[in-house]
Amino acid sequence: MALNEELLTVRDMSKRFYGTQALDEVSLNLAAGEVHTLVGENGAGKSTLIRILGGIHEMDSGEIAIDGRPSEFTNPREALNAGIVIIPQEMQLVLDATVAENVMLGNMPSKKWLGFIPVLDRRRMREQAGEALSKLNYHGSLDIPVSRLTFAERQLVVIAKALLHEAKIFILDEPTASLEQREAERLFEIVHALKAQQVGIIYISHRLDEIVELSDKCTTLRDGKVVDVSTRGHIEKENIIRLMTGRDLAELHQPHKLEFGETLIEHESELTLRRGEVLGLAGLLGSGTTKYLRHLFGAGEEAAAINLSGDEVQLKNPIAAIQHGIGMVPGERRNALIYDLSVRDNIVLPHLSDVSNGWRLNLKQIDKLVADLMEALDIRPRDPKKLVRVLSGGNQQKVIFARWLIGDFKVLLLDEPTHGIDVGAKARIHRLMKEFTARGGGVLFASSEMIEVVNMSDNIIAMRQGEIVARMSRESGEYNEGYLREALGG
Amino acid sequence: MTTREENQTVNITASTDSSEKRFTVVAVLEQMPLVALVVLCLVTAILSDRFLSPVNLTNIMLQASVMAIVAMGMTYVIISGGFDLSVGSIVALSGCVSAWVMLETNVPFGVISGITVGGAVGYLNGYIVSRLKVNPFIATLGMMVIVRGIVLLITDGRPIYGEDGLPEIFLELGSGRFLGIHYLIWVPVILFIIFSWLLHMTAYGRRLFATGGNREAAFLAGIQVKRVVTSAYVWCGILGGVAGVMLASRLQSGQPTAGEFYELTSIAAVVLGGAALHGGVGKLYKSMIGVFIMMVLANSLNLLNVHSYWQRVAVGLVIIAAAAADQIKSRRN
Asked: For chain A, what is the HEC assignment?
């Protein structure tokens, strides 16, 4: 039967979470040696699907078959034993243990000392670990702690470990989200190496170029349903975006206007931000952009001395920055959101004094304000009382944005505002940035995605190791991605 | 073919059932403390005919009244992401200071100084935790020992009631009634209304939840997190002070050994009420249910003539069971 050639078959998988149909009769086939990509906006059901395959959630109905045998997992261990491994965005490794130890964890070879006392066989451990890693083109040291590896190398360690556990199905969940271009290319080589070993790969990414390059098959999800399955040669970016979002790419792009108003902030003659301007702060991970934005927001170690529309001010803390009309969206959502509070409370958090009569919160005013913002930003589900924890990444990011659309904010400091969110939500955030500047605000935004910086900015400052290494302007001189990459040495 | 379709239908019904069932399970777990309290009362009422007697119920209310006030303060501190081990010592200090001061001056001044001294210790706790960044466990453990030491020093280890006892009007507070209900019961009722309002209806309350839930995020949203954390300990100290004064009026003296284990009982009550020890989650009324569970449990074991040593074992088990139920709940979510 044809079914048996399939490594993994998912048939009619459905899952409901309190009133939300997260998955609606989703089917999927994965053959050995195949890369099957999964695309969809945040909340489309990708995470739910892989969490069920990984044994973290149980499905309500449907079937999973591995090698043609029906399987169902009630916990992650059972999924692991069935040969399914999820390589998540943030991996669990023992950071202080060596590379070899991490690869062999749970598989440690032992020998008998004095013929009867079992001890760890370190030599065999290094041999086996080295062999597994060299298949993946890792030729670094086996004896350094994992904490000293780059993010990409850590992924190799996890993959090697899984291969030793005879994993057959790899689920790579946004493996390139935190990688630089060169590292990402190395990861693609590994994907090819895994394919050659007849491993089946489910690959999730928001980067559509990768999808086109890697996919043997591509399944598009929207609102918990499969809306399209395409095979290699028939996968097109524009088509995927339309299927994912139900809109055309052209609608998602914003035009540029190069007319700026007076200066909003100036900082140590390094930085000037004017009304109507989007100023890009380009830098790779660890280049100091995050620290710089925090400093400007008064959240650094020392107070920030800035010139604000002509007045010299000291920003000692975020409270001062907020009072002066400066808002910030931090790089990591967990640094911005209170997960145990509702969407409503998270939105009004910096404005609690403004929405109170004396001590008492003016709930009517808050509800009206929040309802309007949720509508304007299309925050889903449209329920202000939902805990912000249950929202998808893109919607959480919109909640953080919504905060600074209350009141009269002149400057937005954004740190990686579109990190790890899908094209639809990304376009929405980009549009918000443009709308903010169109109303006379100024946006300073940091990103490690060069294309994004170049497309969105009017002017760019490039940072490396905490120093400004280059400036680019759309109005004059060279303004392109290549120049920027050169400046950053990436 | 028909069979497959039938199978599917069955599957779908089964799925709706199980998701609905899970929903109810969570809803029940959410109200677990209340359910537990009701069950506890029913069982005790069946096993002992004395349980529902007016005398016994009043007794429970009186015992709960002091602990309820301590637990209100503890709820604030736990929501802020810390906890306060020194509150039992604060109860003793406030009781003794108020007794001492009222013997020297007058009753109102005595009551006010007792409460103020509680607030002052609370402020010190808050300062040490939020400014000096000492772990709340260590900071308040130290403060618990220091304050108890000070109480013993100023009282020389003996109860304070002067030569002719504490002023008559103060003792009236401990035994008198208004509308047939003890003053000692009115106090927590009024405080509960005020502190529920403060916690759930005001900007300050949201800041407290935000700070306890995610300090960094609260800081970046422009909340003065240090001040908010300190305020929680101040409330806890003030409420500990009120509890201490009330206890002194009931015991007709300032007792240097009063309030022992109040910190543990109140923390247990707050956790029973579903507040999270990592902060940011909690409801004042649920903490009160927690207090009643502790009090009714103790009362019920007494009525059933369970040996007092076994009572301790039972109370410990209930606390662990509550924490385990809470874990199951958060996993379901």
From this structure: CHHHHEEEEEEEEEEEECCEEEEEEEEEEEECCCEEEEECCCCCCHHHHHHHHCCCCCCCEEEEEECCEEECCCCHHHHHHCCEEEECCCCCCCCCCEHHHHHHCCCCCEEEECCCEEEECHHHHHHHHHHHHHHCCCCCCCCCEHHHCCHHHHHHHHHHHHHHCCCCEEEEECCCCCCCHHHHHHHHHHHHHHHHCCCEEEEECCCHHHHHHHCCEEEEEECCEEEEEEECCCCCHHHHHHHHHCCCHHHHCCCCCCCCCCEEEEECCCEEEECCCEEEEECCCCCCHHHHHHHHCCCCCCCEEEEECCEEEEECCHHHHHHCCEEEECCCHHHCCCCCCEHHHHHHHHHCCCCEECCEECHHHHHHHHHHHHHHHCCCCCCCCCEHHHCCHHHHHHHHHHHCCCCCCCEEEEECCCCCCCHHHHHHHHHHHHHHHHCCCEEEEEECCHHHHHHHCCEEEEEECCEEEEEEECCCCCCCHHHHHHHHCC
CA distance A166 to B16: 36
Q: Chain B residue with minimal CA distance to A293? A: B220
Is residue A279 a contact partner of residue A442, using CB atoms and an 8 Å limit?
yes
User: For testing the chain A interface, which of B5, B18, B206, B207 should be mutated: the one with the most A CBs within 10 Å?
Assistant: B206
Chain B residues inside the 8 Å CB shell of A23:
none
Q: How many CB contacts within 8 angstroms connect chain A with chain B?
A: 97
Cα A464 to Cα A298, A364, A456, A488, distances in angstroms: 21, 48, 20, 6
Q: Residue A8 has which token pair? A: 């993994």
A350 Cβ under 8 Å from any chain B Cβ: yes
Handedness of CA B257, B259, B263, B267 (dihedral sign): positive
Closest residue in chain A to residue B222, using alpha carbons only: A319
Nearest CA in chain B to A363: B201
The whole-angstrom distance between A378's CA and the closest CA on chain B is: 22
Mutation target for B interface from A25, A72, A338: give the one with most B CBs within 10 A: A338
In B, which residues are within 8 Å of A361 by CB distance?
Answer: 201-203, 206
Q: For residues A453 and B143, what is the distance between their CA atoms, to the nearest angstrom?
A: 53
Measured between alpha carbons, how far is A112 from A228 in angstroms, rounded to an integer?
Answer: 56
Amino acid at A142: L
Q: Where are the alpha helices (DSSP H) in chain B?
A: 2-30, 32-47, 54-79, 87-104, 107-126, 136-155, 168-175, 183-201, 203-213, 215-220, 225-251, 262-272, 284-303, 308-332
pLDDT digit string (tens) for A60-76?
999 999 888 888 888 88
ipTM of the complex: 0.81
Which among A319, A335, A356 is the nearest to B203, CB-wise?
A356
Q: How many angstroms away from the CA of B217 is the closest CA of chain A?
A: 4
A364 in B contact zone (CB under 8 Å): no
Per-residue pLDDT tens digits for B98-133: 999 998 898 899 999 999 999 999 999 999 999 999
Closest chain B residue by Cα to residue A17: B19
The span from the CA of B209 to the CA of B191, in Å, is 20
A356 has a chain B CB within 8 A of its CB: yes
What pTM value is reported for the model?
Answer: 0.76
pLDDT over 80 at A85, yes or no = yes
> Are residues A349 and B221, on separate chains, in Cβ contact within 8 Å?
yes
Looking at beta carbons, which residues of chain B come within 8 Å of A297? 220
Nearest C-alpha of chain B: how many angstroms from A200? Answer: 28
Q: Is B253 helix (H, G, I), strand (E, B) or coil?
A: coil
pLDDT band at B65 (very low <50, low <70, confident <90, very high): very high
